[in-house]
Amino acid sequence: MFSLPTEGTRLANAFCTRFGVTQPIILAPMGRVGPPELVAAVSNAGGLGLAPLWTESPDKMRMEIRRIKELTDKPFGVNLNMDFRNEEQLDVCLEEGVDVVSLFWGDSGNFVERAKSHGVKVILTVSTSEGAREAVDLGADAICAQGWEAGGHVEGRVSTMALVPAVADAVDGLPVIAAGGIADGRGLAAALALGASAAWIGTRFLAAKEAPTHPIYLERLLAASENDTEHYDDLYDLVWPNAPHRALKNSTSRMWEAAGRPSLGHRPGEGDILATRPDGVEIPRYASAVAFSELEGDIEPLPMWSGQGVGLVTKVQSAEEIVREIVDQAKSIIDF
């Protein structure tokens, strides 16, 4: 067992110190299954909750942020997608006094500069050490190094094991967050040993009591092994094209594979409406959607985003229990 420096109950590393949290765990922002209740629960447990609000209107964003503030007085953040960069969304974050803004996928424009000018801390997600150096030059307060094992939309091709130390070496002491395939304390301990200051965890929190994961999606997650996901360059690309991703294999992916992975316009089942949201929006096959609890329709063919750590997700727990279990297990391996 090796030791890391501590300050009381806080892990005295670069991330926890800079972001004012007590546990080196970040809730990955997961659209429609990362509601205020889950974000606040992770923050209340000592980690950093991130709210996935880039798909929302500014008015809805404001409501969600205020709801999180009703549920926690701890630091939390908002995740914004730079492929759909929206100045009004950043305006809301700044006006509402959000602690942290997480930016990913694409050119961040002036968002880092604007956020930092208001005292907001910025996390930039990268997939290479070169991207990490560019993020440092932009003024990021922390770097999320996302490995190829991650669930959902994954920009890079490098594994977490190889990427994290390369990024840590490239950023000269700036906090690094390891993302991709981490679902328990062993993964957290490994991330810290590789030079990260924290772990970014998504798939494990899909099984949190506070997450409105559709029951069929949840059942698939709890039964899955590490071999049940696949990385796709362009399968679920309606709504968000040119955005590679990782999800559980399902009937849609098998049908597409059997047809030879044809491009959009030539795929089997195109035009099929699989499900409907409560607001009446229909979800067609191959859409970049999320199977959340209020969907009605045929759920199994929808994308079920998942990282390769899914085999470690075996039970439903509260977010607080998940954070505590991961930290306790990591502490049994390394001393912090």
Topology:
Elements: E1 6-7, E2 10-11, H1 14-19, E3 25-27, H2 36-44, E4 49-52, H3 58-71, E5 76-81, H4 87-95, E6 100-104, H5 111-117, E7 121-126, H6 129-138, E8 142-146, E9 152-153, H7 160-171, E10 176-179, H8 185-193, E11 198-201, H9 215-223, E12 229-232, E13 245-248, H10 251-258, E14 273-276, E15 282-284, E16 296-297, H11 319-331
Helix pairs in contact: 2-3, 3-4, 6-7, 8-11
Protein architecture, described:
There is one protein chain. Helix content is 32%, strand content 18%. The chain is an alpha/beta fold and 336 residues long. Helix 3 (58-71) links the parallel strand 4 and strand 5. Helix 8 packs across helix 11 (319-331).
